[in-house]
């Protein structure tokens, strides 16, 4: 017969066993819950039959030619490609007419922020189903990165060094540059072509970096646009072509066009951003992802988002972008995938201090536009 002490010990062991079984059941339910949701979502997506993307043309090709279609053959990827600044008025006009045609957007940086402000987006985080997609420890700095201040609408999935200065290799020695202030040397007056600030896209990223960098700021922008007699252009690759022909020595233009021209054997290259003492900006390379609200194919959108942000999807993105993107494979911010196929220029290197340009506080362009407009007026009066 058990004494009181022995009985208490047995009851303790029994209680612990019951608790363990209870926890295992809960764990099993938790695991099956997401699996059930995933299977139901995939089946519903297959019935919808497609996911419609509004995207920049280049990244649209990556979506279409990537591995998603093989993985989910019953879900067609349909892409409407254009510049981000062209997509926003189109989307808003469609919505005013009661037409909700887009499921997912990859529209660069400024354009999705405009959609966020217009309340045209659902939180992309609400579409996350797979545990590995929800796990933020798999991403750079141990978290997922967003442009919007709420941190759940505009997801950043690529991080790459920000190249701002292209040069003609017959006319310029890049070792001359140790600071961005060197661009204001009198020797470069009238010899710089730049993408027009009013055109958005790359120019917005460039001008945000200059404006918010503590060692440059509004004064640098004022002098750049008032003193240097810049020639502006609005369509790629006009400025890059002028650079290649030697009409201009320097170009404040997007790296993709310079890389493409260099690959064609033209005398152009990019100044390594690590040369400039003001630090290295970190850009999205216009690779952001948003979920449109009132999406016509909500389940297909969820399936794509989860697959694309998974380890499998981001490995596939890197490999596919290497075949399609002008500047070569671009580095996912997922840190649990190999980066062997990423060109050195597109990698994040240890020991370098990077300044992400997707800070939500940077996206108000009004103060930047005000400085540039006043500077250009000042330059015209001289």
Describe it.
The protein is of the alpha/beta class and 382 residues long. The chain has two domains: 184 residues, D-Maltodextrin-Binding Protein, domain 2 (3-Layer(aba) Sandwich), CATH 3.40.190.10; 141 residues, D-Maltodextrin-Binding Protein, domain 2 (3-Layer(aba) Sandwich). It has 13 helices and 15 strands. Strands 1, 2, 3, 4, 5, 6 and 14 form a seven-stranded mixed β-sheet that branches. A five-stranded mixed β-sheet has the order 10-9-11-8-12. A three-stranded mixed β-sheet has the order 7-13-15, with no helix packed on it. The longest helix is centred in the N-terminal third of the chain and has 45 residues.
Outline:
The protein has 382 residues and is α/β, with parallel strands linked by helices. It has helices at 4-48, 57-65, 68-71, 84-96, 110-117, 131-134, 202-212, 217-227, 238-245, 255-263, 298-309, 311-324, 366-381, and strands spanning 50-55, 76-81, 104-106, 121-122, 145-146, 155-156, 160-161, 166-168, 192-195, 231-233, 250-252, 268-270, 280-283, 288-292, 354-356.
Record the SSE blueprint.
Layout: H1 4-48, E1 50-55, H2 57-65, H3 68-71, E2 76-81, H4 84-96, E3 104-106, H5 110-117, E4 121-122, H6 131-134, E5 145-146, E6 155-156, E7 160-161, E8 166-168, E9 192-195, H7 202-212, H8 217-227, E10 231-233, H9 238-245, E11 250-252, H10 255-263, E12 268-270, E13 280-283, E14 288-292, H11 298-309, H12 311-324, E15 354-356, H13 366-381
Parallel strand pairs: 1-2, 1-3, 9-10, 9-11, 13-15
Antiparallel strand pairs: 3-14, 4-14, 5-6, 6-14, 7-13, 8-11, 8-12
Helix pairs in contact: 1-11, 2-12, 4-5, 7-8, 8-13, 11-12
């Amino acid at each position: 017969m058990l004494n009181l002490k022995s009985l208490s010990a047995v009851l303790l062991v029994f209680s612990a066993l019951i608790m363990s079984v209870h926890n295992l059941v809960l764990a099993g339910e938790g695991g099956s819950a997401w699996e059930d949701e995933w299977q139901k979502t995939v089946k519903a997506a297959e019935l919808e039959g497609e996911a419609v993307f509004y995207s920049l043309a280049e990244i649209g090709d990556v979506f279409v030619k990537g591995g998603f279609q093989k993985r989910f053959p019953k879900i067609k990827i349909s892409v409407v490609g254009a510049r981000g600044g062209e997509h926003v008025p189109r989307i808003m006009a469609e919505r005013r007419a009661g037409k909700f045609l887009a499921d997912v957007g990859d529209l660069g940086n400024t354009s999705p922020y405009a959609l966020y402000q217009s309340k045209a987006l659902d939180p992309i985080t609400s579409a996350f189903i797979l545990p590995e997609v929800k796990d933020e420890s798999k991403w750079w700095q141990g978290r997922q990165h967003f442009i919007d201040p709420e941190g759940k609408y505009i997801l950043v999935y690529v991080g790459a060094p920000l190249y701002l200065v292209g040069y003609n290799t017959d006319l310029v020695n890049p070792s001359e540059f140790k600071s961005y202030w060197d661009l204001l040397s009198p020797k470069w007056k009238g010899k710089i072509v730049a993408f027009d600030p009013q055109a958005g896209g790359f120019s917005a990223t460039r001008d945000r970096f200059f404006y918010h960098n503590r060692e440059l700021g509004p004064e640098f922008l004022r002098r750049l646009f008032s003193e240097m007699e810049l020639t502006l252009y609005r369509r790629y690759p006009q400025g890059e072509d002028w650079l290649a022909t030697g009409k201009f020595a320097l170009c404040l233009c997007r790296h993709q066009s310079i890389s493409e021209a260099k690959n064609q054997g033209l005398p152009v290259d990019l100044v390594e951003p690590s040369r400039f003492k003001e630090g290295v900006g970190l850009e999205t390379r216009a690779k952001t992802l948003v979920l449109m609200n009132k999406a016509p194919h909500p389940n297909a959108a969820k399936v794509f988002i989860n697959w694309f942000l998974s380890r499998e999807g981001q490995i596939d993105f890197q490999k596919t972008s290497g075949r399609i993107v002008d500047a070569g494979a671009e580095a996912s911010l997922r840190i649990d995938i190999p980066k062997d196929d990423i060109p050195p220029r597109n990698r994040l290197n240890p020991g370098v201090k990077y300044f992400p340009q997707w800070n939500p506080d940077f996206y108000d362009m009004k103060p930047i536009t005000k400085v540039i407009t006043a500077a250009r007026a000042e330059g015209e009066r001289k």
